[in-house]
Amino acid sequence: MSFYRNSPKLTETHRNSPKLTETHRNSPKLTETHHQNSPKFSEIQRNSLTFHKNAPKLTETHLNSTKLTEIHHQTHRNSPKLIETHQNLPKLTTKTFKTHRNSPPNSPKLTETLRNVQNEFF
Fold first, then answer.
1. pLDDT 10s digit of each residue in the chain, 122 long?
2. Which long-range contacts (CB under 8 A, 24 or more apart) does 55-63 make?
3. How far apart are CA 75 and CA 55, in angstroms?
4. Where are the domains of the chain?
5. Of 40, 46, 85, 106, which has the fewest Cβ atoms less than 10 A away?
């Protein structure tokens, strides 16, 4: 390490280089963009927090969106599987009650019917 630290070439090229000093140490762009205490950085950070907390667009789109709610409900209402299940519900109910009425508890027929109903609709 001391070789590198004390190397004349290193000292000349890297430590005291006008280009290094100009570009990296005192660069307005570096200070503005990367240093946490730069006014621009603080402003960007504040604006970012404000956007996330109070953004009208965010609130409108995600929290209170009428369109989102409407689409969600339409999707459920118009779902082919849901419609089919609702249309077949009287059949399901009738089938289940007939089986219950005509079968003793734990009968193989009752168990089979319930299993078929579950497989068909759920």
1. 555 555 656 555 555 555 555 555 555 555 444 555 555 656 666 666 555 555 555 555 555 555 656 666 666 666 666 656 666 665 655 555 555 555 556 666 666 666 666 666 55
2. none
3. 28
4. 1-42, 68-122
5. 106
CB 9 within 8 Å of CB 17: no
Cα 112 to Cα 122: distance, rounded to the nearest angstrom: 15
pLDDT at 94: 58
d(CA 11, CA 4): 9
Tokens of 47: 């604006």
- CB contact at 8 A, 61 and 86: no
Question: Using the 8-state DSSP alphabet, how is residue 61 labeled?
Answer: I
Q: What is the largest CA-CA distance in the chain?
A: 102
Helix locations, 59-79, DSSP H: 66-77
Write down the pLDDT at residue 57: 58
Task: Give dist(CA 99, CA 113) in Å, integer.
Answer: 7
